[in-house]
């Protein structure tokens, strides 16, 4: 029986969206238990009588977005996030899910759950959409590390490629390095050295990829330093949101003829919006920790949390952490 520890108080829609997602996922995932951490009274009222394979651990504190991450996990010992992480550390649960403070989730992953031996730095990895398929691509790191070394990017690429193969079903995933040009000598020392490490690895490395090519679907995995990755991720999220808003505004606020046209292309628009629906991919995985740690957006609704729970369940079923241990434990 797999067990997922869930910070039920993280995010804007907590605990309602989280409990609703757990109840939906529980009906499908018959071999999975859920431990919810947070306000016991609120959670109990939302669950009702359907308590099979659901446990509640009462906590009295909640880490907020404005709290300083490391200080928060050290001083707020009875917060829903910290207690959930401790359960994973103590092997009372197999994975951690939270919608809360990203920095605190990262700190819990590194300082409480711990790194896999041989992994120097864990990296955050979301799955993002591409224009030519529904498979998307994985990008790592997107903000767990402000500074990077070439060997970090190699480690992240290895873990992300394995994830792409086992969780997303991509055979021999194509791996690229995000850089400011396609040529092998492009970029600073970090990127030139990372290029050589990736080229000499046993990964299916296809070379550099530029920022304007990310959504073309050329690569299944894109390795990048955390500073650049975070900036690119925020740019993709912001641009896609603005474009969808402008499209809706243009179609709905330009007179009756435009509205009629919008109705005629309604199905096509649904397909476009669906292709860039990131909820279906689940959350961002902190790859390199000794148990799965997954962060989904603080604004996530029931649907997004539901898909993230299914993502975590598959990660546990595929035992990818065991594979990472075998890959990296031999390193000094």
From TrEMBL:
GO molecular function: phosphate:acyl-[acyl carrier protein] acyltransferase activity
EC number: 2.3.1.274
Pfam families, alphabetized: FA_synthesis (PF02504)
Pathway assignment: Lipid metabolism; phospholipid metabolism
Top-level taxonomic group: Bacteria
GO terms under cellular component: cytoplasm
UniProt KW keywords: Acyltransferase, Cytoplasm, Lipid biosynthesis, Lipid metabolism, Phospholipid biosynthesis, Phospholipid metabolism, Transferase
Coiled coil region boundaries: none
GO term, biological process aspect, one: fatty acid biosynthetic process
NCBIfam families from the UniProt entry: plsX
Record note on quaternary structure: Homodimer. Probably interacts with PlsY.
Family: Belongs to the PlsX family.
Function recorded in the entry: Catalyzes the reversible formation of acyl-phosphate (acyl-PO(4)) from acyl-[acyl-carrier-protein] (acyl-ACP). This enzyme utilizes acyl-ACP as fatty acyl donor, but not acyl-CoA.
Protein name, entry field: Phosphate acyltransferase
The species this protein was found in: Lactobacillus bombicola
Gene: plsX
């Amino acid at each position: 029986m797999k067990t997922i520890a869930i910070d039920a108080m993280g995010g804007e829609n907590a605990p309602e969206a989280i409990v609703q997602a757990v109840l939906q996922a529980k009906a499908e995932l018959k071999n999975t238990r859920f431990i919810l951490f947070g306000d016991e009274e609120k959670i109990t009222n939302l669950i009702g009588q359907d308590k099979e394979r659901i446990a509640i651990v009462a906590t009295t504190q909640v880490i907020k977005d404005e709290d300083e991450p490391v200080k928060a996990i050290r001083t707020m010992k009875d917060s829903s996030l910290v207690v959930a992480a401790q359960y994973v550390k103590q092997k009372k649960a197999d994975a951690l899910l939270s919608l809360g403070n990203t920095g605190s989730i990262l700190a819990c992953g590194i300082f409480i759950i711990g790194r896999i031996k041989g992994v120097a730095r864990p990296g955050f990895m979301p799955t993002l959409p591409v224009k030519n398929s529904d498979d998307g691509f994985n990008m790592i790191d997107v903000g767990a590390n402000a500074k990077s070394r070439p060997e970090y990017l190699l480690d992240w690429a290895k873990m992300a490629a394995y994830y792409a193969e086992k969780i997303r079903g991509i055979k021999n995933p194509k791996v690229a390095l995000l850089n400011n040009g396609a040529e092998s000598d492009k970029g600073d020392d970090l990127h030139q050295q990372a290029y050589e490490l990736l080229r000499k690895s046993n990964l299916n490395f296809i070379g550099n990829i530029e920022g304007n090519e990310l959504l073309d679907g050329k690569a299944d995995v894109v390795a990048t330093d955390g500073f650049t990755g975070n900036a690119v991720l925020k740019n993709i999220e912001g641009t896609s949101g603005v474009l969808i808003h402008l499209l809706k505004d243009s179609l709905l606020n330009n007179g009756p003829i435009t509205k009629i046209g919008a109705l005629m292309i309604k199905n096509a628009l649904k397909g476009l919006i669906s292709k860039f629906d990131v909820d279906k991919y689940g959350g961002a995985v902190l790859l390199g920790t000794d148990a799965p740690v997954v962060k989904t957006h603080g604004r996530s609704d029931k649907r997004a949390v539901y898909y993230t729970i299914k993502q975590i369940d598959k990660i546990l079923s595929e035992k990818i952490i065991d594979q990472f241990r075998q890959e990296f434990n031999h390193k000094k």
